[in-house]
Automatic annotation (TrEMBL):
InterPro entries: AAA+_ATPase, ABC_SmlMolc_Importer, ABC_transporter-like_ATP-bd, ABC_transporter-like_CS, P-loop_NTPase
ABC transporter domain boundaries: 8-243
PANTHER family: SPERMIDINE/PUTRESCINE IMPORT ATP-BINDING PROTEIN POTA, SPERMIDINE_PUTRESCINE IMPORT ATP-BINDING PROTEIN POTA
SUPFAM superfamilies per UniProt: P-loop containing nucleoside triphosphate hydrolases
Protein name (Swiss-Prot/TrEMBL): ABC-type quaternary amine transporter
Species of origin: Bifidobacterium longum subsp. infantis
Keyword Transport: yes
Residue runs in coiled coils: none
Keyword flag ATP-binding: yes
Any one GO molecular function term: ATP binding
Length: 375
């Protein structure tokens, strides 16, 4: 478990690249000692920029970055990466091919002029920790992808860094190896009490590993929270859409009813969750995949024909685009007008091309005229 001592912090950190691209915009984040933080977000959202700002590979334009109470970057201070004492692992296991496994792992200790006996002891310790005891004399070319990545992890932790930074470190590995390395990595960081920042495009990985998840979009931090927060209480429609595959509807709440026009449907506001008070006025409705049920199109049509008064308000008609089997739930993607709805269902899956009704059972209402600003 992490304690609540803030270990690394970003205060109002913005970064503009020389070509004018905004990498980060006023990012604020406090990381607790021993905490495992996952950075998620679409490609180009600023995940690597945030990590590199902490690592010292880029210098923020404004704001300050601190590690263990020491400012490592602000408008006047810049501590170079080699003096920040951090361990890093990248997606491509960048081992030096002309050095043995042992010499690769030993490298950071040579940089810090650690005595030879201590170096040997620590290399053995790190290799044992990643399950590669006895691999010291091997050549990197003799290793599998998973083994190479273990060596890269051993090299990152051998000098007992203040933090471990992982940039898509597991992304090049195939399942089930990836899953097992994921578990081992988490076990190791807990054992060592290592504060970890992990960039991943894989939501499942972030949910499985992280104490807290930071979601970025266009350089803005959209939400910082536990996996449960992001899954069940997305802070805004962008998080709901990216992280939870929610379908977004722009519409209006009036007299207890939310209405939207394309595609046309309405739903009582008592079925909507909102942060403050009763849903009222214009806003965005986010519907999570679990909040929809599929109704066979023929049944829906028959019922409405027999009973024209039947309440079909929260039903939409659409065509199945994709229907995928999953271990717990099946995912069905339905096209209704211009909208693509992603539904989770159990039981029989409809066929691709089939017409179906989609019932919206509940949703999250975000008041406001339009989607949050994404500059
Ligand atoms: P992510 O890791 O989420 O994919 P990045 O942090 O790499 O995103 O990039 C954030 C934004 O900054 C993107 O628009 C990207 O194109 C831009 N960017 C990243 N590195 C550079 C660079 N060296 N020069 C100019 N723009 C960059």
């Amino acid at each position: 478990m992490s304690n609540s001592h803030p270990y690394a912090s970003f205060q109002d950190v913005s970064l503009e690249y020389p070509n004018g691209t905004i990498g980060l915009s006023k990012a604020n984040l406090s990381i607790n000692e021993g905490e495992f933080i996952a950075l998620v977000g679409p490609s180009g959202s600023g995940k690597t920029t945030l990590l590199n700002t902490l690592a010292g590979f880029v210098h923020p334009t404004t704001g300050s970055v601190s590690i263990n109470g020491q400012v490592v970057a602000d408008e006047s201070i810049f501590v170079p990466p080699e003096h920040r004492h951090l361990g890093m692992v990248f997606q491509q296991h960048a081992l030096w091919p002309h050095m043995s496994v042992g010499r690769n792992v030993e490298y950071p200790l040579k940089q810090t002029k650690t005595p030879q006996d201590e170096r040997r002891r620590r290399v053995n310790w790190a290799l044992k920790l990643v399950g590669l005891e006895g691999f010291s004399d091997r050549n990197p070319s003799e290793l599998s992808g998973g083994q190479s990545q273990r060596v890269a992890i051993a090299r990152a932790i051998v000098a007992q860094p203040r933090m471990l930074l992982l940039d898509e470190a597991l992304s090049a590995l195939d399942e089930p190896l990836r899953e097992s390395l994921r578990l081992e990595l988490r076990h190791m960081t807990i054992d060592l009490g290592l504060t970890t920042l992990h960039v991943t495009h894989d939501r499942g990985e972030a949910i499985a590993l992280a104490d807290r998840i930071v979601m970025l979009d266009h350089g803005h931090i959209r939400q910082i929270g536990t996996p449960d927060d992001l899954l069940n209480r997305p802070a805004d429609p962008i998080v709901a859409s990216f992280f939870d595959d929610a379908t977004l509807f722009e519409g209006q709440c009036d007299n207890g009813i939310f209405r939207t026009h394309k595609p046309s449907f309405h739903i009582p506001t008592r079925l909507l969750q909102t942060e403050d008070g009763m849903p009222e006025g214009p806003g965005t409705l986010a519907v999570l995949p679990d909040a929809m049920t599929l109704v066979e199109d023929s049944i829906w049509r028959e019922n409405t024909a027999v009973s024209p008064d039947m309440d079909t308000s929260s039903l939409l008609s659409g065509t199945v685009m994709t229907s995928l089997y999953g271990p717990q739930v099946n995912t069905v993607v339905v096209k209704a007008d211009d909208l693509t709805l992603r539904c989770h269902i159990t039981g029989a899956r409809p066929r691709q091309g089939e017409h179906v009704g989609v019932r919206i059972n509940k949703g999250i209402f975000y008041p406001g005229n339009k989607l949050p600003r994404r500059t």
